[in-house]
Structures are given as C-alpha cells and as structure tokens.
Amino acid sequence: MGLSVLDLTIGYGLGNRYFRVLWWVGGLTLVGAFVLIGIGSHAWAEFPSIFFASLDQLLPIISLDKAHDVLIFGDLKAKPPCEAQAFGVRVYFYLHKILGWVLASFLVAGLGGLTQRN
C-alpha cells in the first residue's frame, strides 16, 4: 500500500516524476478553496485570498500570512472578533494540514533517494 501511495504521489527513482507533487498541491489547494466557499462562509469574490489561505494551510513548514489562520480558525481576541468556520470546515483543514506533511515527507524521501526502485 505504501509503495502504491509513493507511485501516485512522486513515483519511483529520480526524474520528472517529483513534479507530480505539484499536481497534488494544486488539486488539494483548489479543494480547500471550494470547501471554504461551498461549506464555509466565504464568497467567490474572495477567491484569490481563499486560494492562498488553502495553500498556506497545506504548506507544512512555512507560513505565508497569519491572517489565513484567522480566516479559517477564527480569533475571538481580534478587534473586531473573527468567528471560526463551521466544525466540518475546520476538520477538513486539519486533514488538509496532515496531507501537506505527508506530501512533503514523500518529496523529501524521494529527493533523498530513499524511494528508488532496486
């Protein structure tokens, strides 16, 4: 099962297959944006900022803007207070973050040569 996941995400060995991760990142970022618009409380007019908020949640190590966290998880101490998204949206973005870590670890393992087929 693990090898099948590697094959779908980064492939085996060295080469251009590592760019498959970019397709996964783009797809998951779009899904996150659609979750924020469809289930969350945001409109299509906010799409660029929603897209980058979804990307920011997917990237495991870097943070693009702390306002993206507030957009999804809320901040009641802010003035004016910002409500968190619905419970289902927050759960999706917790999973979204985990998938970002998984994709990043596969990419690092692949670039390190740990996924080469013998």
Briefly summarize what is shown.
The chain has 5 helices and no strands.
Helix and strand topology:
Elements: H1 2-9, H2 20-38, H3 47-58, H4 66-73, H5 87-111
Provide the descriptors you would attach to this structure in a database record.
118 residues; mainly alpha; 61% helix; elongated
Inertia-based shape: elongated
Q: Output the structural class.
A: mainly alpha
Number of strands: 0
Q: Give the % helix.
A: 55-70%
Please give the alpha-carbon distance between the first and last residues.
18 Å
Overall pLDDT level: 82
Main sheet makeup = none
Number of helices: 5
Q: If you compute it from the alpha carbons, what radius of gyration comes out, rounded to the nearest whole angstrom?
A: 16 Å
What fraction of residues sit in β-strands?
under 5%
What is the ordering of alpha helices and beta strands? HHHHH
Q: Which parts are unreliable, with pLDDT below 50 for 5 consecutive residues or more? A: none
What is the number of domains? 1
Oligomer kind: single chain
